[in-house]
Write a structure and sequence with these properties.
The structure is a homodimer of 331-residue chains.
Chain A: H1 5-12, H2 16-23, H3 32-44, H4 51-58, E1 63-68, H5 75-89, E2 93-98, H6 103-115, E3 120-123, H7 131-138, E4 143-146, E5 155-161, H8 163-176, E6 182-186, H9 192-207, E7 217-219, H10 224-236, E8 243-246, H11 249-261, E9 271-276, E10 289-292, H12 295-312, E11 318-321, E12 324-326
Parallel strand pairs in A: 1-2, 1-3, 3-4, 4-5, 5-11, 6-7, 6-8, 8-9, 9-10
Antiparallel strand pairs in A: 10-12
Chain A binds a DNA duplex (16 and 16 nucleotides) through helix 2 and helix 4.
DNA sequence: ATGAAAGCGCTAACAA
DNA sequence: TTGTTAGCGCTTTCAT
């Protein structure tokens, strides 16, 4: 049977209150003698505190919910890792959930997390629908948004990336390299990331006096398969193009692959530029030129921000991280 | 303020016991009238049950700890995803932890999970030291081992992969393809996976009457960097070789890269064969021939097995999954 | 320097 | 058909 503070109290001939205070270092005045005795007994009996019982009274679970679209997308493990490292450092644990960009799954998870009494939630809002804004508004748990922005009430902070300038810099680079007919295979335009990147794309073209051709823009998912399908759609559409800017690296990598399979050389025939800088982008041939997003840092900062709100009651702020263009060989 | 069953009871003019029974569907005999009234009040007031309070009495948290070396290694997101999908389906949540193959971090996490009263733990034992076997033995929580085997007392089940035959098949394939001097860049031989794969490697050579040359075996970590370093060590060692069998795909991918950078052609000059079949292996050039491990299934089965033990008190068994050779272009 | 007692929100016998 | 009561293991206020 598991040992409780009651057992310890009995063995040490003190009250449970005393044991609790000692175990939590809460009362300076308790004599060294009893303190040591109790501590010893606890150790000898391999005492494991029941955190649920504690949480029930302290109303603090020291756990954080991490809600992501899909850990299988290589952008997210980095982010999750950053989150976990900071959480661990601060004595928090993480419950992690995959939403598959499905609004229903998301709100079901959010509710479960609420029931588990997590202290806060870090959320990459699912791409789908508006439905869950409502359920988010109901949530009484401190929420930190990461990666994707959205307008909800009780947001305690945001960790975003400057997608506009990231895309702008990328497309501008393509233009500088003399590419004029730049296709854009984007992720779902229901996400702010995709919208902002589209903004950067169009602005860069405008600024260079290039007319925007909507036939060059293809909207799909942030998934590998869309890299293949999107490229094929583009190819079949018969519009002329000399470069592809991709919504993320997963798309870019598979665009390159599809192009190569058709005997189209990258970058000699077509240039390809990605977004994210997942580690894989450096391992393919040709190595992918891409926009680096600080995924690890995003996770890390999100947890930091959340804990600041939780423990120090700091007003939640918005952190906007910078991207930078990583030049390799695909352009 | 958050609403409790007490509040609901008051509003509905019934006892908390009745409310509890209704909310949990535990008592058939309660009249439809009160049942509906209570349910309505709960809904109207957006009642969220406090699972900690419940767990405290039921001694069941419906959460599972998932302890991995590093989610950043692309083998593990798949596994984690499989675990999460099954857990979600069964009404469990997952707390996830990265150990970095560090025994201390591992046992610290294990203890935290114990304190959180998780119902069970799924563990990929960290590569390091023997130190934590002891702390594992102390653990009173049902444990399911995944990927790496180890001898501990209260194991409730294992999900392993037949590493021996996986490696055997791979090396045998190399031999059939007329490669005779096969180097092996392996992960840490403190893991059972590496040991078993080494066994398969040597057996395959033996069976073909090829003498084992220990100068061709290089031990390091299951990490990308070791793919680079290991390949360089091999190259600098001046032993002759015509193929490299790699401890995992991360190593293999970087071996190929290193080889290519030196102007060595894969597979014409040197063949490279990997292990894991991470999605990345199909995206590089040349696409990697590798041993497929069913990572998703491993995670899925581990959770299934654990829940079977938990909910149905089934005796824990060992599941041994099969690998299969995926032939692509690097051999 | 220590203890008594109340209570966190819930469930589960058992009674009525 | 419903309610009473006693905890689950812990913290915390207030006495002593």
């Amino acid at each position: 049977m598991k040992i409780t503070i009651k057992d310890i109290a009995k063995k040490a001939n003190v009250s449970t209150a005393t044991v609790s205070k000692i175990l939590n270092n809460k009362d300076e005045r308790i004599s060294k003698k009893t303190r040591e005795r109790v501590l010893l007994i606890a150790k000898e009996n391999n005492y494991i505190p029941n955190l649920m019982a504690r949480s029930l009274v302290t109303r603090k679970t020291n756990t954080i919910g991490l809600v992501l679209p899909d850990i299988t997308n290589p952008f997210f493990p980095e982010l999750a890792r950053g989150a976990e490292d900071k959480a661990n450092k601060e004595g928090y644990m993480i419950m992690y959930c995959n939403t598959d960009d499905d609004a229903e799954k998301e709100s079901s998870y959010l509710e479960m997390l609420a029931q588990k009494m997590v202290d806060g939630i870090i959320l990459t809002q699912s791409a789908n629908k508006e439905g869950n804004v409502e359920s988010l508004n109901k949530l009484k748990i401190p929420l930190v948004l990461i990666d994707r922005d959205i307008n909800v009430k009780n947001i305690k902070g945001k960790v975003l990336v400057d997608n506009f300038s990231g895309a702008y810099e990328a497309v501008d680079y393509l233009i500088k390299k003399e590419y004029k007919k730049i296709a854009y295979i984007t992720g779902p335009l229901s996400t702010t990331t995709a919208i902002e990147r589209l903004g950067g794309y169009t602005k860069a073209l405008e600024d260079s006096g290039i007319l925007i051709n909507f036939e060059l823009i293809f909207e799909g998912e942030y998934k590998a398969q869309w890299g293949i399908d999107g490229t094929n759609e583009l190819l079949n559409s018969k519009v002329e193009f000399d470069a592809i800017f991709c919504g993320n690296d997963l798309i870019a990598v598979n665009a390159i692959r599809t192009l190569k399979e058709k005997g189209i050389h990258v970058p000699n025939d077509i240039a390809v530029l990605g977004y994210d800088n997942i580690f894989l982008s450096d391992m393919i041939d040709p190595p992918l030129t891409t926009v680096n997003q600080p995924a690890y840092k995003m996770g890390y900062e999100a947890v930091k921000l959340l804990i600041d709100v939780l423990d120090n009651n700091k007003e939640g702020k918005t952190i906007k991280l910078k991207t930078n263009l990583v030049i390799r060989k695909s352009v």
